[in-house]
Amino acid sequence: MKKIASSFLAFILVLSVLSFGNQAEAAVVNKHFTVNVTKLDVREKPSPRAKTVGSLKKGAGVFVYNTEPGGWSKIKYNGKAGYVATSGLSGQGSSAKPAPTKTTPVLMKDITFGMTYQQVKNRETRGLYYDYYDPLITSYLTYDPKKSKYNMTSHLVYKFDYKSLVNVWYDFNPKRNYHTISQLRSYYMKLQAQGIKEFGGNYYYNHTQNDDYVDFSSRWSLDGYDVTLGVTNKLGYSTITLYYDPVGYQSSSSQNDEEKFKHLIEEIEKYNKQLDRH
To answer: Are 266 and 157 in the same domain?
Structure first.
């Protein structure tokens, strides 16, 4: 009888261990949350001893794929998976959009990253402003859609590397006029309000100011691509853009929004120099 009782207790113990193990497995979440601490480290693996690959500021929106054993959440960070302490997140979580597919449009007219120069040109019906084709390096297609984005005058620029579409941006200051800091701030607030309506309230914000130089930027991480709204004074003129780039296109060495914004500005400067030569 004792042997039977002992076997029964052992069986119960095994069930308990198995049950606990199931509870410790990763749980699918697929929702957006908000960082509730001043600084939340992002790690390479779900461990406090794992390598830190970056950090998030308080108030930043973050997409959580699932929770991991030990109080960790798997998130999307700079186009890659990372891990943060679940205790550093708050909010009920908003439902995620459908998983990205190869047909996810980055703009209207079903234009997607990876399309060729000719494919984009065939789909666009807006007025062509600038056409530069070099299949061996970089090509550009620029359109002049009058007040087509947020009811503001802008140029729409497509950039291709080796025939493939890699970046898209709306230029709200195509004449490269100079604006004061207060004027830039006004532009930024107006465009940010429109961006929130279109892309939602989960975005990363950055502000840098040094004498006459200033930049404001907001970045939305969407399904398959990021959108960055940025305004800045540099080299004697102002840049006001809404910039689309595919997740993972930016170098993995960039660990924060300021570096990413600088990279986008450099891409726009390259385009402007190309435009000046023609």
So the answer is: yes
Alpha helices for the chain (secondary structure H) = 2-24, 117-123, 181-199, 257-277
* pLDDT tens digits for range 41-87: 989 888 888 888 888 877 777 778 888 878 898 887 766 788 999 88
Quick one: tokens of 44?
Answer: 């390479």
CA–CA dist 248, 79 (Å, integer): 5
Tokens found for residue 83 = 């891990």
Tokens for 266? Answer: 């450099």
Whether residue 113 is found in the same domain as residue 230: yes
Residues in a beta bridge with 83: 43, 74
Both 271 and 192 in a single domain? Answer: yes
Q: Is 188:180 a contact under the CB 8 Å cutoff?
A: no
- Whether residue 100 is contained in a domain is answered as no
Contact 7, 15 (CB under 8 A): no
Question: Residue 143 to residues 153, 155, 157: CA-CA distances in angstroms?
Answer: 11, 6, 7
The verdict on 58 and 130 lying in the same domain is no
Q: Are residues 227 and 265 in the same domain?
A: yes
Do 51 and 180 belong to one domain? no
Domain housing 9: 2-95
* Overall average pLDDT of the 124-129 stretch: 88
Give the tens place of pLDDT for each residue, 240-250.
999 998 865 44
* Mean pLDDT in residue range 119-128: 89
CB 277 within 8 A of CB 260: no
Q: What's the number of domains the chain is made of?
A: 2
